[in-house]
Design goal:
Layout lengths: L2 H12 L5 H15 L2 H9 L3 H4 L15 H12 L3 H14 L9 E8 L3 E8 L2 E6 L42 H5 L27 H20 L3
Antiparallel strand pairs: 1-2, 2-3
Helix pairs in contact: 1-6, 2-5, 2-6, 5-6
Bound molecules: flavin-adenine dinucleotide.
Flavin-adenine dinucleotide (FAD) binds next to helix 8.
Length: about 230
């Protein structure tokens, strides 16, 4: 599809005038942030150059973990309209990009095939559908299992463990004042307790990054053990 055709579809489906261009770029830039590196690049390769540019923005391909609400809030900020409008516009833009079919409130109920996958069965509000496909990427397991740490170390609003520079003054009262030092890299709000990898707030959520953080944290552990405490 050409750029003007794409915008025409967005204008028509969302009842937008010239604002369609802004809504389209806001949605694609946010989508690019949500996709991981290769995915943003692959999608960009299939789009007209004017749209592909939005998928090559500085934040593209960082694989940001956004809930649907956070996604629409970011589109709203970029587009400069309220959340209700941005939600409608983003859904239309994604709908026009025919290669993406967003199914909300949908549950996978079965996988069909023998040696390879041939289709996926889904149910949306009690209505079943069979989607022929050869591959499934399951993005589950991204929620931190840190309930047991709550009350012991400071967590962010999503349950990820705050460390070093993410810790605010409110987390560093009491025992930190007595220690007379700031947290070491990867140290949590509990002195001598370190967090690395996915569970750490602000980490990159990639294997290589987690391994690197683990080894870097060991340096802090040595430093901690060298303190007199
Ligand atoms: C679906 C999916 C696809 C991904 N694809 C990629 C990819 O293609 N490339 C890439 O680089 N990264 C990918 N990642 C991210 C990558 O898996 C993580 O960044 C990496 O595994 C983080 O390593 P980690 O050691 O920090 O955490 P984890 O690998 O999650 O290890 C934490 C371990 O701690 C255990 N654990 C949890 N709670 C407790 C407890 N209370 N007591 C004892 N043990 C506990 C868990 O069972 C787990 O074994 C993907 C992640 C997901 C979920």
């Amino acid at each position: 599809m050409r750029y003007d055709e794409f915008l025409g579809q967005v204008q028509h489906r969302a009842g937008l005038g010239s604002h369609a261009e802004r809504a389209t770029h806001a949605t694609l830039e946010t989508l690019a942030e949500r996709l991981a590196g290769g995915e943003a690049h692959d999608l960009a390769a299939q789009l007209p150059p004017e749209l592909a540019r939005s998928l090559e923005a500085p934040d593209a391909g960082i694989g940001a973990k956004l809930t649907l609400n956070e996604f629409f809030e970011l589109v709203s900020e970029r587009e400069g309209v309220d959340l209700e409008d941005s939600t409608l516009h983003a859904r239309v833009v994604i709908g026009v990009e025919a290669r993406i079919d967003v199914r909300t409130n949908t549950r996978i109920t079965a996988l069909d095939g023998d040696s390879t996958l041939t289709s996926v069965r889904v149910t949306t509000g009690g209505v079943d559908a069979v989607l022929p496909c050869a591959a499934l990427f399951s993005f589950i397991g991204a929620d931190p299992a840190t309930g047991w740490l709550s009350g012991c170390v400071a967590l962010d609003e999503h349950g990820f463990v705050l460390t070093d520079r993410s810790l605010g003054e409110e987390h560093l009262a009491g025992r930190w004042e007595a220690l007379g030092r700031r947290p070491l890299p990867f140290e949590t709000s509990y002195p001598g307790l370190f967090a690395a990898g996915d569970v750490r707030a602000g980490s990159t959520k990639r294997v290589a990054a987690a391994v690197g953080e683990g080894s870097a944290a060991v340096r802090s552990v040595h430093e901690y053990l060298a303190f007199t405490h």
